[in-house]
Design goal:
4 helices; single chain; alpha+beta; 238 residues
Length: 238
Protein backbone atom coordinates (compact mmCIF):
# COMPACT_ATOMS: atom_id res chain seq x y z
CA UNK A 1 0.00 0.00 0.00
CA UNK A 2 1.39 3.35 -1.02
CA UNK A 3 1.21 6.43 1.18
CA UNK A 4 0.95 9.97 -0.21
CA UNK A 5 3.96 12.26 0.20
CA UNK A 6 3.93 14.13 3.47
CA UNK A 7 1.94 11.44 5.28
CA UNK A 8 2.80 10.69 8.90
CA UNK A 9 4.37 7.39 7.86
CA UNK A 10 7.01 9.11 5.74
CA UNK A 11 10.36 9.27 7.60
CA UNK A 12 11.26 12.76 8.82
CA UNK A 13 14.62 14.23 7.95
CA UNK A 14 16.49 15.62 10.97
CA UNK A 15 16.63 19.41 11.09
CA UNK A 16 20.18 20.63 10.61
CA UNK A 17 21.25 23.54 12.80
CA UNK A 18 23.16 26.33 11.02
CA UNK A 19 26.85 25.44 11.36
CA UNK A 20 30.04 27.26 10.46
CA UNK A 21 33.31 25.52 9.65
CA UNK A 22 36.64 26.99 10.79
CA UNK A 23 39.67 26.19 8.60
CA UNK A 24 43.18 27.42 9.38
CA UNK A 25 45.95 28.08 6.86
CA UNK A 26 49.47 28.11 8.24
CA UNK A 27 50.91 29.87 5.20
CA UNK A 28 48.84 33.03 5.71
CA UNK A 29 48.31 32.54 9.46
CA UNK A 30 44.58 33.07 9.00
CA UNK A 31 41.38 31.16 9.60
CA UNK A 32 38.57 31.03 7.06
CA UNK A 33 35.07 30.61 8.47
CA UNK A 34 32.41 29.37 6.08
CA UNK A 35 29.00 27.74 6.05
CA UNK A 36 29.60 24.02 6.62
CA UNK A 37 27.24 23.24 3.74
CA UNK A 38 29.26 25.44 1.37
CA UNK A 39 32.85 25.56 2.68
CA UNK A 40 34.33 26.95 -0.54
CA UNK A 41 32.87 30.43 0.10
CA UNK A 42 34.19 32.09 3.30
CA UNK A 43 31.97 34.33 5.40
CA UNK A 44 34.68 35.57 7.77
CA UNK A 45 38.46 35.76 7.78
CA UNK A 46 40.25 35.70 11.14
CA UNK A 47 43.70 37.30 11.20
CA UNK A 48 46.06 35.79 13.76
CA UNK A 49 49.11 37.84 12.75
CA UNK A 50 48.54 40.09 15.74
CA UNK A 51 48.24 37.10 18.08
CA UNK A 52 51.71 37.81 19.47
CA UNK A 53 50.13 40.99 20.81
CA UNK A 54 47.29 38.89 22.28
CA UNK A 55 44.80 40.07 19.66
CA UNK A 56 42.68 38.41 16.97
CA UNK A 57 40.87 40.31 14.22
CA UNK A 58 37.67 39.05 12.57
CA UNK A 59 37.01 40.55 9.13
CA UNK A 60 34.44 40.17 6.39
CA UNK A 61 35.15 37.72 3.58
CA UNK A 62 36.66 40.40 1.33
CA UNK A 63 38.61 41.83 4.31
CA UNK A 64 37.17 45.30 3.69
CA UNK A 65 35.27 45.44 6.99
CA UNK A 66 36.38 44.59 10.51
CA UNK A 67 33.57 42.70 12.21
CA UNK A 68 35.25 42.64 15.58
CA UNK A 69 38.38 42.01 17.61
CA UNK A 70 39.30 39.97 20.65
CA UNK A 71 42.06 41.04 23.03
CA UNK A 72 43.73 38.77 25.58
CA UNK A 73 45.89 39.89 28.50
CA UNK A 74 49.11 38.71 30.14
CA UNK A 75 47.68 38.62 33.68
CA UNK A 76 43.95 39.26 33.54
CA UNK A 77 41.77 36.25 32.76
CA UNK A 78 39.01 38.56 31.44
CA UNK A 79 39.46 39.14 27.69
CA UNK A 80 38.00 42.17 25.95
CA UNK A 81 36.24 42.29 22.62
CA UNK A 82 34.78 44.78 20.19
CA UNK A 83 31.94 44.08 17.74
CA UNK A 84 31.00 46.72 15.16
CA UNK A 85 32.54 49.43 17.34
CA UNK A 86 30.82 48.30 20.55
CA UNK A 87 33.24 47.23 23.30
CA UNK A 88 32.68 44.61 25.98
CA UNK A 89 34.32 42.19 28.39
CA UNK A 90 34.06 38.43 28.72
CA UNK A 91 34.30 38.12 32.49
CA UNK A 92 35.22 35.03 34.48
CA UNK A 93 32.60 33.76 36.93
CA UNK A 94 34.95 31.13 38.37
CA UNK A 95 38.72 30.99 38.83
CA UNK A 96 39.52 27.42 37.91
CA UNK A 97 36.79 26.34 35.48
CA UNK A 98 35.44 27.65 32.22
CA UNK A 99 32.55 29.78 33.39
CA UNK A 100 32.31 33.19 31.77
CA UNK A 101 29.70 35.85 31.07
CA UNK A 102 29.26 38.71 28.61
CA UNK A 103 26.57 41.25 27.82
CA UNK A 104 24.85 40.62 24.49
CA UNK A 105 23.11 43.24 22.38
CA UNK A 106 22.31 40.65 19.71
CA UNK A 107 20.16 38.68 22.18
CA UNK A 108 18.56 41.74 23.83
CA UNK A 109 14.77 41.65 24.03
CA UNK A 110 14.56 44.94 22.10
CA UNK A 111 17.08 47.08 20.15
CA UNK A 112 16.83 49.90 22.69
CA UNK A 113 16.58 47.65 25.73
CA UNK A 114 19.31 46.50 28.12
CA UNK A 115 21.71 43.81 26.88
CA UNK A 116 21.09 40.20 27.73
CA UNK A 117 23.44 38.44 30.13
CA UNK A 118 24.97 35.40 28.46
CA UNK A 119 26.93 32.57 30.08
CA UNK A 120 29.70 30.41 28.65
CA UNK A 121 30.51 26.91 29.91
CA UNK A 122 32.65 24.14 28.47
CA UNK A 123 33.28 20.42 28.41
CA UNK A 124 35.97 18.41 26.67
CA UNK A 125 37.12 14.97 25.72
CA UNK A 126 40.21 13.58 24.04
CA UNK A 127 39.41 15.15 20.65
CA UNK A 128 37.31 18.28 21.15
CA UNK A 129 36.88 21.18 23.55
CA UNK A 130 33.31 22.46 23.43
CA UNK A 131 32.41 26.00 24.48
CA UNK A 132 28.64 26.41 24.98
CA UNK A 133 26.88 29.77 25.11
CA UNK A 134 23.70 29.93 27.22
CA UNK A 135 21.05 32.63 27.22
CA UNK A 136 19.45 34.26 30.27
CA UNK A 137 17.20 31.21 30.69
CA UNK A 138 20.25 28.90 30.59
CA UNK A 139 19.23 27.53 27.22
CA UNK A 140 22.03 26.79 24.74
CA UNK A 141 22.16 29.17 21.78
CA UNK A 142 25.54 28.28 20.27
CA UNK A 143 28.43 25.86 20.60
CA UNK A 144 32.00 26.27 19.42
CA UNK A 145 33.76 22.91 19.14
CA UNK A 146 37.53 23.29 18.98
CA UNK A 147 39.35 20.38 17.36
CA UNK A 148 42.27 19.76 19.72
CA UNK A 149 44.27 17.77 17.18
CA UNK A 150 43.28 19.58 14.00
CA UNK A 151 45.99 21.21 11.92
CA UNK A 152 43.70 22.78 9.34
CA UNK A 153 40.11 22.02 10.35
CA UNK A 154 40.35 23.59 13.79
CA UNK A 155 36.69 23.81 14.76
CA UNK A 156 33.04 24.38 14.01
CA UNK A 157 30.36 26.71 15.36
CA UNK A 158 26.79 25.46 15.71
CA UNK A 159 23.85 27.82 16.28
CA UNK A 160 20.75 26.77 18.19
CA UNK A 161 17.32 28.17 18.99
CA UNK A 162 15.08 30.80 17.36
CA UNK A 163 17.94 33.26 16.72
CA UNK A 164 20.14 30.72 14.96
CA UNK A 165 19.90 32.48 11.57
CA UNK A 166 20.41 36.04 12.85
CA UNK A 167 23.44 37.76 11.30
CA UNK A 168 23.95 39.89 14.43
CA UNK A 169 23.99 36.75 16.56
CA UNK A 170 26.40 35.09 14.17
CA UNK A 171 28.81 38.04 14.30
CA UNK A 172 28.70 38.15 18.10
CA UNK A 173 29.18 34.43 18.63
CA UNK A 174 32.06 34.25 16.15
CA UNK A 175 33.93 37.07 17.90
CA UNK A 176 33.19 36.13 21.51
CA UNK A 177 33.51 32.39 20.92
CA UNK A 178 36.92 32.63 19.30
CA UNK A 179 38.12 35.15 21.88
CA UNK A 180 37.11 32.92 24.78
CA UNK A 181 38.60 29.83 23.15
CA UNK A 182 42.03 31.40 22.76
CA UNK A 183 41.77 32.94 26.22
CA UNK A 184 41.38 29.44 27.67
CA UNK A 185 44.20 28.08 25.52
CA UNK A 186 46.41 30.88 26.84
CA UNK A 187 45.33 30.13 30.41
CA UNK A 188 46.32 26.47 30.07
CA UNK A 189 49.77 27.32 28.69
CA UNK A 190 50.81 30.51 30.51
CA UNK A 191 52.20 30.77 34.02
CA UNK A 192 51.30 34.47 34.08
CA UNK A 193 47.64 33.60 33.44
CA UNK A 194 47.82 31.16 36.36
CA UNK A 195 48.82 33.95 38.74
CA UNK A 196 46.24 36.16 37.07
CA UNK A 197 43.58 33.64 38.07
CA UNK A 198 44.90 33.62 41.65
CA UNK A 199 44.40 37.37 42.07
CA UNK A 200 41.26 37.59 39.91
CA UNK A 201 37.92 38.72 41.30
CA UNK A 202 35.44 36.50 39.46
CA UNK A 203 31.78 37.41 39.37
CA UNK A 204 29.04 38.86 37.19
CA UNK A 205 29.40 42.07 35.21
CA UNK A 206 27.55 44.88 36.99
CA UNK A 207 26.61 46.70 33.80
CA UNK A 208 28.13 47.62 30.46
CA UNK A 209 28.65 51.27 31.34
CA UNK A 210 30.62 50.62 34.52
CA UNK A 211 32.67 47.91 32.79
CA UNK A 212 33.71 50.28 30.02
CA UNK A 213 34.49 53.03 32.54
CA UNK A 214 36.72 50.73 34.57
CA UNK A 215 38.55 49.75 31.39
CA UNK A 216 39.05 53.46 30.63
CA UNK A 217 40.71 53.91 34.04
CA UNK A 218 43.12 51.07 33.30
CA UNK A 219 43.99 52.52 29.90
CA UNK A 220 44.46 56.00 31.37
CA UNK A 221 46.88 54.70 34.01
CA UNK A 222 48.72 52.68 31.36
CA UNK A 223 49.14 55.79 29.20
CA UNK A 224 50.92 57.50 32.07
CA UNK A 225 48.57 60.49 32.25
CA UNK A 226 47.86 61.13 35.97
CA UNK A 227 45.33 63.90 35.35
CA UNK A 228 43.37 61.85 32.82
CA UNK A 229 43.44 58.79 35.09
CA UNK A 230 42.27 60.82 38.09
CA UNK A 231 39.46 62.39 36.09
CA UNK A 232 38.32 59.04 34.78
CA UNK A 233 38.46 57.50 38.26
CA UNK A 234 36.22 60.25 39.64
CA UNK A 235 33.68 59.52 36.93
CA UNK A 236 33.63 55.82 37.83
CA UNK A 237 33.22 56.56 41.55
CA UNK A 238 30.38 58.96 40.88
Amino acid sequence: MEHPPGSSLEPHKPIQNPTLQVDFTWLKWKAYISDASNPSIPLYIVDFKAYKKRCIIVKSADESTTIGTGTLHFFSINPNYEIHGRKGTIKALKRWKTSYTHHSHAFASSPDGPPATMTWTSNSDFKTWDFVCLDEHQMPVAKYSANLWGLNKIGKIEFLGPNATSEAVRDEIVVTGLTLTYCMILRTTSLLSFFGAVIARPGPIKNSQSSESQQAVVEAHASGSPSEAAGTSRQVVS
